[in-house]
Each structure stands twice: as C-alpha cells, then as structure tokens.
UniProtKB/TrEMBL annotation:
This is SHC SH2 domain-binding protein 1. Keywords: Cytoplasm, Cytoskeleton. It comes from Stegastes partitus (bicolor damselfish). Residues 55-70 have a biased composition (Acidic residues). The gene is shcbp1. The lineage of its organism: Eukaryota, Metazoa, Chordata, Craniata, Vertebrata. It is found in: Cytoplasm, Cytoskeleton, Spindle.
C-alpha cells in the first residue's frame, strides 16, 4: 500500500502536466457533458483517471482504490485497439502481435517514473514492477507468443505469478510454432513446460493482436517490462551497497536517455562501441565475482579461501572500475568530458607520404572563378609555389576531393565561395590548406550528420583563412588526434564541441574566432600541447576545458594562453577537470593508516556483503573560484588584488560514487580573486598565461570541476 500511495501521489502530480493535451489527442476521446444518465458513471471514472488533480476537491473515490495505471490510456468506451499490428515476416502459422517497440522517449519515461518504478530503491524494483503489473495485466485467458532465441510458440495464459514476474501458461493445440535451427515437437514442448512448471517469464510473452482493444494495456505493460529488463536493468544494480537512493533518478533516466540518444544518432559510433564493450566486460566480471563469492566460506581459514578472497578483491575493484566508466558514459554531462577519447573505428584514410617522383602538387579548389581572380591567384600564390619544374597544379570543385588527393608537402588553395560538404575531412599528411581571401569569403559548411567535421593526424598540418560551419554533427568541429596542427586566422562556427586536442597531439591556434559550441570551445586532453594566442572564444557552454584527470600513466597537458578574449560563455571561461580525491581537499574523512587493517576489513566485507564494494564514504570539499574580467598586456600577466575566497565543504552523505559539481561564486563581483589566478599560474600545466581578457562569463572566469 505504501508503494501504491507513492505511485498514486506521483500520478496526481503529473496529471496537471500539459502532456495531458497530447494524451487526450492521441486517444481521440470526446467527453460529452450532455450524455444520458446511463453514461454518467462511466464518464466520471474517465474524468477522474485523466484529470484527477482538477476533481480531487469535488469527488472522492468511494471504494478508495486507484485504477490509474499509467498505461490506462484506453480505459474508455472501447472503440477498437489503438495499437498497430506487427505482422510476422515470412508467413507461417503463428498469429500477428501488437506493435509496441516503437514507443517514444517520453512515453516510456512517464510510465517508469509515475507508475512502474516511482521513487523505489534498487532492491524494490521487482516489488514495484509486480504492483504495477497487477493493476494493468489481464489476469488470465489471453493468447500470447512465447518468444525465445530458439523458438516462438503460441500459448494461452491461465494465471499470473507476479511475485516472480512469470505467467502460468498452457500449450495451444494443435502446436503452432516457429523454430530457429532446431525441430520442436508437441511432446518436446509439453516436456519443456512441465520442467518449468508451466511458468514462463512475462518478458518473453508477446500478446496476440486483437482489434477489440481489450488487451492494449496488457501489451503495453509487457513492452515496458521487457524494455526495462533488456535495456535499463543491470544484474549488479540490486547489489549496490548504497541502496538508499532513487533508482529512477540515478540509473533509469540516464540509461533511457542514452538509449534514445544512440537510437537518434546523437552519440558517436566509437562511444557506442566503447559502451557496449564495457557492458560486456562488466557482465563477465560480475559473473566471475558471483561464482567466486559463492565458493567462499565465512568460517574457513584455509589457504585456498585466503587466495580466493584476494582474487575476489581484485575482481571487486575491476567491477567498480567498469561500473564507474559506465556511469560516466550514461551521464550526458560527463559523457564527452571524461569518457570519450575518440572514435575507435580505424579510419580508412592513412598517410600517403611523399610521392615517389618527389613532385609537389598545388590543389586549387573552386567551382568557377573570374579572370581577375585567376590572375591574382597566379601572381600571388601559384607562381611562387610552382617556380620549380617539379610542381603541378590540379583543380577541384570541392575541398574534400582536394584533401583526399594530397600527399605529404602538397598545398590546397581554396578560392572564395561557399562549399557544402557531406563527408568528414581527414588530413593524414603534412599539408597546407589555406583560403585565398578573408575567412568570411572562404566558407566550408558541413550539412549532414557525422562523428566529426575535420580530423587531423598529420605530423605538420597548417590551416589558414577559412571559415568552418558545423551543422548537426555529433563530435567537435575540429579534432587534432595526433601530430601537429597550426591554425591561423580561421573562423569556427560550432554546434556541438569546438576544437579538441587529444592526448599526444599539438595545436597552435592564433588569431582565430570560435563560437557557438554547446560544449567547450576548446577541449584539451592530458598529454597534449596547446598554444592559444590572440583568439576570441565566446558564446559557448564553457570557454576552455582542460582535462587534468590523468591516470597514473598520463602526462599533464602543456598550455600557453596569451592575449585571448574569452567572453559571454554560459559556464566558465576556463574550467579545469580534476578527480575528486579526498586527500586533495580539506574536510576529507581520514582513512585507516594501517594497510593490514584495511585489507582485513575488505576481506570481511567480501564475504559478508552482497556488493563487496571496497569503496568507503568520504566527505570532500569541492572548490571552485571565479575572477572578474581582467585585461592586461603586461608580460608579467594580470596582477589582480587579493581577496579572501573560502572554499565550501560539500559533505555528501551518500556513499555511492557520485559525480559532484559544486560551484562557489564570488560574493563580490567587483573584486578580483587572486586565488584562482594563483592556482592557475602555479599549476604545472601552464607554460604561460598572460594578457588574457575575460568578460561576462556566466559562472565566472575560472572554475574547477571535480568528479
């Protein structure tokens, strides 16, 4: 009853949502207030189900029961099914089923949040799901296909065992089935059902299509259950030692969003592959851990058990590592900041090296040009470049084909015009690509979806005088994966992330204008070298994001920032991402100094707890400081006045590995905080930081992001 009241309360809060208009439209119901007296009772129940909040003060449910189930969208006078038919391919004797797999994000979201899961804990998921199914499933006498990897067979549901999320079924005779790679007889199927006591998982049942509409709710409820256990639930969720949290908020919502982001091509293909690989590794690790745990004995001191406990600790640490990486990818705020290190698929474009003949080629990109332009091009660029006899000029209509034709040492000259490209530009060789004119006159615009726009892996690549416009992309506008990229006098109109400098790559960016990024304008990874001089970085989520979350083998980035103007960004001008190590912050809970005691405590936990998590709760202080806009052309850099800026201690009670982003803004916007600048100046990642201007950044000029 407590669970029902929680779900009912959530339902009542949701009924005032404007989404009711969509529901009313989808169901296509007209409530005629002038109906005859025989229909009054029915309309009253419908009104109460759909508009409970509005009538709560006027009517009371006489029997005290709650008939609102979340999928009760068709609890009205039956006028036929509202669901589509799913026709079986290849014919066969089996009947069609309901088409329920194409539900939208918000449809699943509302059912899980308001009706099926509510605010349950991981250990309560099964109980809440059973309560939900009890309200909406037809109790018996309906046909379904029992679907497995090996066969599909027609059965009739005679009863429900909701405690175990199973249905009691009987075989429909004569036998109607489709098999895959095997032969199945009636006797074999009866034997199989007897072995399972005629009980099959509800997830494996698909309701047979009927036009009456009587089984719409049942079909939808089974779809929600099937989708949840296939795409949302993880077998290790129930064993989280920190069980006291809202499972929907912590796990269901981010995983559901990730599923639809992948479905709608909003996640890079490489990150999807990485996530699936992590899921598989985590599942294997959990299985090994569970098997090992089942063999341990709490009262045994044998050497074999001690070895098993040590091995169990290693598996436990691996499992926690995998779970943490999965949480990062599932969180849309941290997905690109911490997890994604590039598309793992091997690019078909590889370095071609120099031509065997030693000839250098100048590639001219233009759809058409005037005689004046051609004369100017000859005198200004072609004659100097082609002075030697071993030079050649080739003409292209668009820049992608020009870059694809390049060998080491070639030059690409792009004449004024707007060039719309449909594929990414990969630069694997050391080439020069320049616009013949001002950046606003030489525009390369990417229209269609893709993982990236421009990717550079050449040892010495040079870009200049070009404007890049990004549309509907998944990754950043420009990515330096390896090698060196020198960019000067370019304009970057972003849509997702801006310029990305991967580990071991080098970027020199001078006199460029970058804006519009929904992430960071410039993302700098550990082990990279980045020089930013005289650039404008503005109207992005964050200006410059520096990833100092180095692993033991990572090298800190090396950054030069001089005379840049970073302004009008939604978040920080410069934000430093760091791991939330308790020992680095004041207010940390002191851990045991005895390694042997810690090891013994872990071994005890390994046997006595289900989750075997070796992580311990700690309080941490998360510090983030801001400065007012500062302008300085002095070689010594800005010298702001000192002011006190005390960090706030964030005492987090929950012990589950939560990613914390705690910002503290300066109370006095008119004063500058020397602490932020001093921290940056003292940080080893900065070779030089001087002469920069920061203006009107929403959360401040400098910040630290702890995770």
């Amino acid at each position: 009853m407590e669970q029902e009241s929680q779900q009912t309360a959530s339902t009542e809060n949701d009924m005032s949502d404007p989404a009711l208009a969509d529901l009313d439209c989808a169901v296509k119901v007209e409530l005629d207030t002038d109906n005859s007296s025989s229909e009054v009772g029915h309309l009253s129940s419908v009104s109460q189900a759909l508009f409970h909040n509005e009538e709560a003060d006027e009517e009371e449910d006489e029997d005290g029961s709650d008939d609102d189930s979340g999928t009760d969208n068709f609890n009205i006078e039956k006028s036929g099914t509202q669901l589509q038919r799913c026709e079986r391919s290849g014919g066969g004797s089996l009947p069609d089923t309901f088409q329920t797999s194409h539900l939208l994000f918000y449809e699943r979201f509302k059912v899980y949040q308001d009706y099926m899961l509510g605010d349950c804990k991981p250990s309560e998921v099964k109980t809440f799901s059973a309560d939900y199914l009890e309200k909406v499933l037809e109790p018996c006498d309906w046909l379904a296909l029992w679907t497995t990897d090996v066969f599909d067979v027609l059965v009739e549901v005679k009863d429900l065992d909701l405690k175990d999320l199973k249905a009691c079924v009987r075989l429909v005779l004569p036998l109607q089935c489709d098999t895959r790679g095997c032969e199945l007889t009636e006797d074999a199927m009866k034997s199989l059902l007897e072995a399972t006591q005629h009980k099959v998982p509800l997830q494996q049942l698909q309701v047979v299509y009927e036009e009456s509409g009587d089984f719409d709710q049942t079909a939808l409820a089974l779809e929600h259950l099937r989708f949840f256990y296939k795409h949302i639930w993880r077998q290790w969720d129930e064993e989280d030692e920190d069980d006291d949290f809202d499972y929907f908020v912590r796990c269901v919502e981010p995983r559901l969003r990730l599923y639809y982001d992948v479905l709608e091509d909003r996640v890079p293909a490489g990150l999807v592959i990485e996530y699936q690989s992590l899921l598989e590794k985590c599942s294997q690790c959990f299985q090994q851990f569970s098997v090992l745990r089942s063999t341990l004995s709490t009262d045994s001191d044998s050497e074999l058990d001690n070895v098993s406990m040590v091995e169990g600790l290693k598996l436990c640490d691996q499992l926690e590592t995998f779970k943490r990486k999965l949480h990062i990818i599932e969180n849309p705020l941290l997905r690109y900041v911490l997890a994604y290190k590039g598309n793992t698929r091997q690019q078909c474009v590889q370095s071609r090296g120099p031509r065997e003949s030693g000839m250098k080629v100048v590639h001219v990109v233009t759809a058409s040009c005037s005689s004046i332009q051609l004369q100017s091009l000859l005198s200004a660029r072609l004659m100097p470049l082609c002075a030697s006899e071993d030079a050649e000029i080739q003409f292209h209509r668009e820049p992608v084909s020009a870059v694809d034709s390049c060998h080491q040492g070639d030059v690409v000259i792009v004449l004024p015009g707007i060039y719309c490209v449909n594929s990414s530009i990969f630069i694997p060789d050391s080439i020069t690509m320049e616009g013949f004119g001002f950046p606003d006159e030489v525009v390369i615009e990417k229209k269609n979806k893709g993982d990236s726009f421009v990717e550079s892996t050449g040892a010495d690549v040079r870009l200049s005088n070009i404007k890049f416009i990004q549309h509907d992309a998944i990754e950043g506008i420009l990515c330096v994966r390896q090698g060196t990229l020198n960019m000067e006098n370019c304009v970057l109109q972003c849509e997702t992330t801006g310029v990305i400098v991967r580990t071991s790559a080098r970027l020199t960016m001078n006199m460029c204008d970058l804006y519009g990024s929904k992430g960071a304008g410039v993302e700098i990874y550990p082990g990279s070298v980045c020089s930013l001089v005289g650039n404008g970085i503005h109207h992005c989520k964050d200006g410059i994001l520096i990833k100092d979350f180095a692993d033991e083998l990572d090298v800190m980035p090396s950054i030069t920032m001089e005379n840049n103007v970073v302004h009008n960004n939604e978040g920080y001008g410069v934000v430093l991402v760091k791991p939330n190590n308790a020992e680095q912050h004041s207010g940390s809970v002191e851990k045991s100094e005895d390694p042997a005691a810690n090891k013994q405590e872990k071994m005890t936990d390994l046997i006595s707890t289900l989750s075997m998590s070796s992580s311990s709760s700690s309080s941490s202080s998360v510090t983030s400081t801001t400065t007012t806009p500062t302008s300085s052309s002095s070689s010594a850099g800005p010298q702001p006045e000192s002011a006190d800026n005390n960090s706030t201690g964030g005492d987090m009670a929950s012990a589950g590995r939560k990613w914390q982003l705690n910002h503290q803004l300066s109370r006095n916007k008119e004063m500058s905080c020397s602490r932020a600048v001093e921290d940056l100046m003292d940080h080893q990642i900065f070779v030089s930081i001087q002469g920069n201007q920061f203006r009107r950044n929403g959360m401040g000029d400098f910040g630290t992001f702890f995770y």
